[in-house]
Amino acid sequence: MIIEEYYHVYNRGAHKALIFLDEADYLRFLHLLYVSNSEKPFLFKLIGNTDIFGLDFGTKLVDVVAYCLMPNHFHIAIKEIQKGGTTKYIRKLCPAYSMYYTSNMIILALFSRVDIRQSL
After folding, report:
1. pTM of the predicted model, to two decimals?
2. Which residues pair with 68 in a beta bridge?
3. Which of 48, 17, 6, 9 is nearest to 31 (CA)?
4. Contacts of 95 (CB under 8 A, 6+ apart)
5. Which of 36, 80, 85, 103 could pair covalently with 92 via S-S, beta carbons 3.0-4.6 A apart?
6. At what angle do helices 23-35 and 85-103 cross, to 10 degrees?
């Protein structure tokens, strides 16, 4: 990546699956757009209910110029402001959202029920 250049980053759900199921999912991703843009690590459980956009997370990795969140994918326009910033940013953003998403998924059983019948 070249410093001061703009990049279009996009990603979608595996097999075109939905990645945003409700308003809470969109909000979590928006929060992650902000908090992932730093060298500092973060834990949401330590942040609590504070105004996340008012917190200082240190030096930014990239400038997020624009974004578009769709039910099964997202687009982000990014300006590289430090060497390797875009890669670091995406390597924080995508796994963080993936962990959030999978932790909220309902795990479906392989079988719907066990059906035992008396022999005839």
Report:
1. 0.82
2. 75
3. 48
4. none
5. 36
6. 150
Length of the chain: 120
Q: Which residue has the tokens 């624009």?
A: 66
* Lookup result for tokens 């902000």: 34
Task: Report pLDDT digits (tens) over 48-103.
Answer: 667 777 777 789 999 999 999 999 999 999 999 999 999 999 999 999 999 888 88
| Inter-residue contact 17 to 88 (CB < 8 Å) | no
- One-letter amino acid identity for 77? A
Checking 43-49 for CB contacts under 8 A at 24+ apart, the result is none
Q: Which tokens sit at 109?
A: 């059983």
The contacts of residue 24 (CB under 8 Å, 6+ apart) are none
